[in-house]
Amino acid sequence: MLWCHMILDRNHVTVRGNGEPAMMFAHGFGCDQNMWRAVSSEFEADHRVILFDHVGAGRSDLSAYNADKYSDLAGYADDVVEIGDALNLKGAVFVGHSVSAMIGALAVLKAPGMFSKLVMVGPSPRYIDDGEYVGGFSEPQIGELLDFLADNHLGWSTAMAPAIMGNADRPELGERLTESFCATDPDIARQFTRVTFFSDNRADMAKVAVPTLVLQCRDDIIAPECVGEWVRDAMPNSSYVLLDATGHCPNLSAPAEVTSAIRAFV
């Protein structure tokens, strides 16, 4: 019991609602669980809804951050599995935004039976172009991005968050994401950025057998449409929805559309 409390406190886990299957929502880089509230709240009437902060984000226990453990996405997937064990999850639905889509895929592989369905919002198994594979970035571009972040965390956040959000006609969305980026510990942000953008989970996609919904946005500079289509084609039991939403964060910019797509799948 003490172990369970430690795990739930470590990741600032919150549980609301009732009903099965349970649904776990996982946030992307530079964000926290609040980025899912507009969507997750719509499922609380008929599902047990689980939100959490990755270690290093939001109100997680920063003292639990270990650079070796979190040197790749598997460390974050281990946390997801531990949360699932603490809550006795079986046949749950995992909903992951951005990098958490891949973290969810790894958790599905690590703990068979814990998750029966997977929702990937803006997934990318590899961000760097590689031969015929188009991830959207060259390695020098990622290097420049990391150098900028190392030199000026606040400046990087101010420049990158609105571009990632898109929806320039709704500047308040970019401002909200900027505030979230700026609130992240700079050292952890640099490490998580490096882990995210140098990850390569392409080989894992074919191993994920649970039904998977890929939600793709238009005009997404982080995970362009060709990447979402690649994920769809690589996974054996996937379906694909190209949303009308633009940018990389439809959970903020178009929560009703995301909710509708997830509900139809669940």
CATH topology: Rossmann fold
Q: How many domains make up the 3D coordinates?
A: 1
Mean pLDDT: 95
| Euclidean distance between termini CA atoms | 31 Å
CATH architecture verdict = 3-Layer(aba) Sandwich
Report on the structure:
The chain is built from 12 helices and 7 strands. The protein is of the alpha/beta class. The protein has a single domain, classed as Alpha/Beta hydrolase fold, catalytic domain (Rossmann fold). Strands 1-3-2-4-5-6-7 form a 7-stranded mixed beta sheet, with helices on both faces. Helix 1 crosses helix 3. It is globular, with a radius of gyration of 17 Å. The two termini are 31 Å apart.
Brief overview, please?
The protein has 266 residues and is of the alpha/beta class. It contains 12 helices and 7 strands.
List keywords for this structure.
alpha/beta, Rossmann fold, 12 helices, 7 strands
